[in-house]
Amino acid sequence: MSKKKTDKKTKPPKKKGAYEAVDIAPAITQAARSMRTALSHMLSESGLYAGQDGVITLLADEDGLTPGHLAEKLGVKAPTMTRTIGRMEAQGFLQRRADDRDGRLAKVHLTDLGRESVEQIRRSAAGCGERAAKGLSDKDVKTLIKLLRTVDENLQPREE
Hints:
Elements: H1 24-43, H2 52-61, H3 67-74, H4 78-91, E1 94-98, E2 106-110, H5 112-132, H6 138-155
Antiparallel strand pairs: 1-2
């Protein structure tokens, strides 16, 4: 009988339920997609589309940001933000106005309709969060948020 040589480079198969660091990205990506889809459905009755809630929420906290600042804070490219602002302006949620001190700068402001939508966004986000946390204990939710914040922090660009 001949003995087979074992290849030391070949990993043994994973045990069912065992995870590795390589599993993190697909899991977070899928959960984020599912969360975004659920939130979009909840927001649709207010006339908002995916991503627009973030613009309104930022402006509710700090009205009068430039498109560039909005893009930076939301982690999108400037042309994407410009298109989003144009669409939201046409929908009546916000308006662009020249800066009081520097007329060359355009600032984005919420309209009355935009301000009215803030509470709907918060209710939808809360409902979506409750749905996502179904079956998790308060401690699990706290741990999940802490872990996701750590992952986010780890992925931020580092100054060297």
